[in-house]
Amino acid sequence: MAHRQVDRGPGARARPSTRGRRGPAGRRVSEGEFREAVAGYGCFHPPSLDKPLNDSGLVLGDALAQDDASGTGSHAAVEARTTLAPAMRTLSARDRRVVYLRFFEERSQSEIGRSLGVTQMQVSRLLSRILRDLRRDVGPA
Fold first, then answer.
1. How far apart are CA 28 and CA 83, in angstroms?
2. How many CA atoms lie within 13 A of 54 on its CB side?
3. Is 115 left (phi over 0), alpha (psi -120 to 50) or beta?
4. Residues paired with residue 59 on neighbouring β-strands, in sequence order
5. Which 8-state DSSP code applies to residue 26?
6. DSSP strand E in 55-119: where?
7. What confidence score (pLDDT) does residue 73 get?
8. DSSP 136
């Protein structure tokens, strides 16, 4: 049976002691399992968004990313990446490169064509096919 040491001060929480580390049914708990359990101790009690971060008066809620009026903020970007990631993994390396060059490096179709050794028209057709495949794989919006 694991013993608990309790600090009776204001706002104190019980902390597991390091003596007699045994799990359910008396099974010995490894050091790694014990540390993992202790690390997750406060996971169900997240800090308040009104908690001050420092002396500047900035609170935790102010530090979180917020979407702007156009909907292109970081939350929308995270959602887009999460939605697209599985579909992107199904693309060939060449198709992923075309998407990267076009949408992350913001290169023109002509520049991409020169990089790949194809014409601008072929890049246009490649992009049309890639985007059609991605839309199909992601499903309706």
1. 42
2. 2
3. alpha
4. 52
5. G
6. none
7. 59
8. H
For domain 74-138, give the fold. Arc Repressor Mutant, subunit A (1.10.10)
For the chain, the domains span 4-39, 74-138
Q: Residue written as tokens 């997750």?
A: 40
Q: What is the pLDDT of residues 11-60, one digit of tens each?
A: 555 555 555 555 556 677 788 887 887 777 766 666 777 777 777 677 76
Q: What is the pLDDT of residues 69-80, one digit of tens each?
A: 554 556 777 787
3-class SS at 93?
helix
The helix (run of H) or strand (run of E) holding residue 132 is helix 120-138
CB half-sphere exposure, 79, CA atoms < 13 A: 9
Q: pTM surpassing 0.70?
A: no
- Residue 60 sits at φ, ψ, to 5 deg, of -55, -40
- Whole-number Cα distances in Å, 63 to 41, 70, 110, 141: 24, 20, 41, 30
Q: Report CA dihedral (138, 120, 105, 132) to the nearest 10 degrees.
A: 0
Whether the Cβ atoms of residue 25 and residue 8 lie closer than 8 Å to each other: no
